[in-house]
């Protein structure tokens, strides 16, 4: 009997349940962003191209544009094939409505995601949202043939469903991941970077060989298959996991038992959340980071095309590659953050602030530098790659402090913060479009980059003043800290110098030592 028990738990001892959760989280966000972004490249093949215009192909470098010769390594002179001509006469306004409908609805469902997660748990909410998104992807080709309005409806449903994913996954972190491991676990959320990075080249290959419809069938099928793995291997708490080892269970419960209350029905303290400056500081500073991030995601490819003169194929590769690299940088940043805390080099609060500044202030300044590097393409690409990879430091910064300050309510807090900062996902490219509406010259883009840097740096100031890694009193049912929590907080925040303190009451939530 003993041997049988030992063999039964041999695999779980070898692969901890936390590692399985990490893999599920990483792959889940990868699949989610594949289904979210597949339409961006599929739209190119779906819509009939505008009538061609003549252009000068000679090498020309001016103060406004950089033109690359046709025989340069990054250009593509292959004629457009018949199957790439497009099927639909959709105006740019209709195309924007199809893609933009996702983000409007995405923002609206953030708070709903936090509330649903508190009631039904991460397993149901995250898995259900992924399944709904996958089904909509599978239906997208048929919807396109009916009317673009049906596509807008499906994209809206995808946006509502996807808006539930982030609050749901944040909620599970407090139950599963000990405080000293949270920065590293947060790197699993960077699966979205890999999702963005692989979607463009993968979908380009699929379109070239099988047509644009196969793009949606592929991403939808991948999403459906992923849901099966999630159903069998994901669990809301360690105590409900049937295959976790007793050693790991004791370790997790001993680390988080005084911070989370899995067995208590705790109403969300929305009043305390809305009055909390640490919560507001997360939403505001992340607004600036998202603003810069979406300059690279949405406006960046247009800059590469109109100013640097890259072809579509080169544009796709160069736009996607930095996001794949972002995952590896996020792992490094989160590991370094944990080391700085566990070795008592910096306090938890200071670690969060350093990495938050690195994720938006530095990339913001680099955006300005990109504008003034002009047509020095090699330097532009180097700075571009560094800036995109630095953005992922946020997951060891402000994004990780969501779990730090209230592990019991990480889902609702993220929902509230995302309602604020995800507005930048459509405001940022909209402002860039206004600034470059008359001309997409280098001078116009410099204005875009300067404005983005101001937003990034200005919003960070709020987090520098009010951001913290301290657990808030309203995280607990009676708004009183267990003695062990006070001791843990002192260990995390009072070295190498006293920085930050336990917040004693709701009225003290904006205090920062």
TrEMBL record:
Transmembrane residue ranges: 15-35, 131-150, 156-177, 189-208, 214-233, 317-341, 361-387
GO molecular-function term, one example from the UniProt record: symporter activity
UniProt topology in membrane: Multi-pass membrane protein
Entry keyword Hydrolase: no
Keyword Transport recorded: yes
Chain ranges of the Major facilitator superfamily (MFS) profile domain: 24-470
Keywords on record: Membrane, Symport, Transmembrane, Transmembrane helix, Transport
Domain of life from the UniProt record: Eukaryota
Alphabetized Pfam families for the sequence: MFS_1
GO biological process: monoatomic anion transport
GO CC, alphabetical: membrane
Annotated signal peptide: none
InterPro entries noted in UniProt: MFS, MFS_dom, MFS_Na/Anion_cotransporter, MFS_trans_sf
Major location (coarse): membrane
Localization per Swiss-Prot or TrEMBL: Membrane
Name recorded for this polypeptide: Vesicular glutamate transporter 2
Organism of derivation: Melipona quadrifasciata
């Amino acid at each position: 009997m003993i041997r049988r028990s030992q063999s039964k738990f041999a695999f779980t001892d070898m692969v901890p349940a936390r590692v399985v959760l990490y893999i599920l989280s990483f792959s889940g966000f990868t699949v989610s962003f594949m289904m979210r972004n597949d339409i961006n490249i599929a739209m190119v093949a779906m819509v009939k191209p505008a009538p061609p215009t003549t252009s000068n192909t000679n090498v020309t470098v001016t103060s406004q544009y950089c033109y690359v010769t046709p025989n340069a390594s990054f250009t593509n002179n292959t004629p457009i094939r018949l199957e790439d001509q497009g099927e639909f006469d959709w105006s740019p306004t209709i195309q924007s409505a199809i893609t933009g409908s996702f983000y409007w609805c995405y923002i609206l469902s953030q708070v709903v995601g936090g509330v649903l997660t508190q009631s039904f748990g991460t397993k149901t909410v995250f898995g259900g949202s992924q399944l709904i998104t996958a089904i909509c992807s599978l239906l997208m080709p048929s919807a396109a043939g009916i009317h673009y309005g049906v596509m807008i409806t499906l994209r809206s449903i995808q946006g509502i469903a996807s808006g539930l994913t982030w609050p749901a996954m944040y909620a599970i972190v407090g139950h599963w991941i000990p405080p000293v491991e949270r920065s590293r676990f947060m790197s699993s959320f960077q699966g979205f970077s890999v999702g963005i990075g692989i979607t463009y080249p993968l979908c380009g290959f699929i379109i070239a060989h099988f047509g644009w419809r196969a793009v949606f069938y592929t991403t939808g099928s991948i999403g459906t298959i992923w849901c099966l793995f999630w159903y069998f291997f994901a669990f809301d708490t360690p105590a409900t996991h049937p295959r976790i080892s007793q050693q790991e269970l004791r370790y997790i419960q001993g680390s988080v038992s005084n911070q989370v209350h899995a067995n208590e029905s705790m109403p969300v303290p929305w009043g305390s959340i809305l009055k909390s400056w640490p919560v507001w500081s997360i939403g505001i500073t992340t607004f600036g980071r998202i603003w810069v991030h979406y300059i690279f995601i949405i406006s960046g490819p247009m800059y590469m095309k109109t100013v640097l003169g890259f072809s579509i194929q080169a544009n796709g590769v160069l736009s996607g590659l930095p996001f794949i690299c972002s995952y590896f940088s996020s792992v490094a940043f989160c590991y370094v953050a944990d080391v700085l805390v566990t070795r008592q080099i910096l306090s938890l609060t200071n670690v969060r602030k350093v990495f938050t500044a690195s994720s938006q202030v530095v990339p913001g300044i680099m955006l300005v530098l990109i504008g003034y590097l002009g047509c020095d393409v090699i330097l532009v690409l180097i700075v571009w790659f560094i800036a995109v990879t630095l953005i992922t430091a946020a997951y060891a910064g402000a994004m990780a402090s969501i779990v730090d300050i209230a592990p019991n309510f990480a889902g609702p807090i993220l929902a509230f913060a995302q309602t604020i900062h995800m507005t930048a996902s459509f405001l940022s490219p909209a402002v860039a479009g206004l600034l470059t509406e008359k001309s997409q010259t280098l001078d116009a883009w410099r204005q875009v980059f300067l404005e983005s840097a101001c937003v990034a740096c200005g919003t960070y100031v709020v987090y520098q003043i009010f951001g913290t890694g301290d657990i808030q009193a309203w995280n607990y049912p009676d708004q009183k800290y267990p003695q062990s929590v006070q001791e843990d907080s002192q260990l995390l925040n009072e070295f190498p110098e006293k920085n930050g303190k336990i917040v004693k009451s709701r009225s003290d939530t904006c205090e920062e030592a």
